[in-house]
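Chain A, query sequence.
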Amino acid sequence: MKKNGFSINELKRDLKKMDYHYMAIELTDVCNIGCQFCCNVGGKKRGVLSEYGLQILLNMSKELDFKGIGFTGGECTLYPYWERIKKIVREKKIVYSLITNGYWAKNFSTTYELLKELKNNNLNSITVSYDDYHREYVKEQNLKEIIKCTHLLNIPLEIQSVTFTDSNLRWLNELLEDGYDLRITFFSRI
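Chain A, predicted structure.
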């Protein structure tokens, strides 16, 4: 059955032909910050995956035996059906990761409790976007709280950074001095 020229059965058929193991889902392009380099215009609501669309994709990931899902956005934790996601992934035993700017990690207890809840709901890794651009909006302390809590909860963490600058090198050295084993990926700004 086609809806607006789109056939779920055709998509499933095509995906079965491909050797995919993970599904990436952009939940929203809404973001609470406005990094100047970003393709998402910070804060301007343009697109949100419907709850129906989310349900289809999560069911499809199980049917096609994907090993996991990566949730991204804008800022995926701003997705209006975020609580629904946590329930579905727990019930269906779907393993997932997420990419965030970490704005929510304002103190240790809040960060620890949220990450513990997500891990108990099958979170298997987290990526935090952090660099000079993100630092304009999200405090470095938020990143440190995430690092501490993911370490304590044994959640794999990656930090992705768009630029490699002297100020990035400063906070990177500070983090490494704290003794954490960090995976950091740097991207070039084009």
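Helices lie at 8-17, 51-63, 82-92, 108-120, 132-135, 140-153, 166-177. Strands lie at 2-3, 6-7, 22-28, 68-73, 96-100, 123-129, 157-161, 183-186.
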